[in-house]
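Q: I'm writing up a methods section and want to include an example of the input and output format. Could you take the sequence below and give the corresponding predicted C-alpha cells, formatted cleanly so I can copy it straight into the document?
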Amino acid sequence: MPPEVKVSKERIVETAYRMSREKGFDKVTARKLAAELGCSTQPIFRSYKNMDMLKSDINEMANKTFGDILSKSFSSGNPLYSMAMNYVEFARTEKNLFKMMFMEESSEGNTFTDLFESEELDGILMRMKDLEGFSLVERRLLFMQTWIFAHGMASMVVTGDLKLDDKDLRDLMHATVEQLMR
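A: Here is the clean output for your methods example:
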C-alpha cells in the first residue's frame, strides 16, 4: 500500500498562491515553498513536474481573483469606466499578482490581443447599455483605448510612478473615458 499523501496538491498550490500574492511568484522556489509547507521538495515535485506547471495553476487562481474583481464592473454606472477602475484597483491591491499576470512576458491565453479578439469580449461589449449607438467595431476601439490607458495607469500605480489619491485616479479615469466616448 502506497504511503499516505500528507501534503496535498491543493495545499501546495494554495500555499504557493499565498506566497505569490505576498512576495511575487519569482520569489517562490521549491525550497521556500517546502519550508512553508513543512516538508521536503519531494511532495511538490510529486504533484508538479516543474515550477512552471505550478505557476500555471497559480495563474488560473489569479485569473479567477481578477475575474471576480472585474465582474463588479457591471453592477452600476458606466461599465467601461468601472472595468478600467477595477483593473487599476486590482493592480493596487494585488500588486504581485498584477505583475505576474500583466507585466511579465505573456503566456498563451493571457495577452491583450487574446482578450481583444475574443468572442466573449464582443458579447460583453454588446451588452453595455452606455455604448448604445456605437457599432461593435467602435465599441472594440473604445475598449482598446480605455484598456491601454487603464493598463498604463495600473502599471504606474504598481511601480510607484503614479502617486495620486483615489479621488484623483477616479477623476482622471472618468475624464479619459468620457473623452474617448465623444
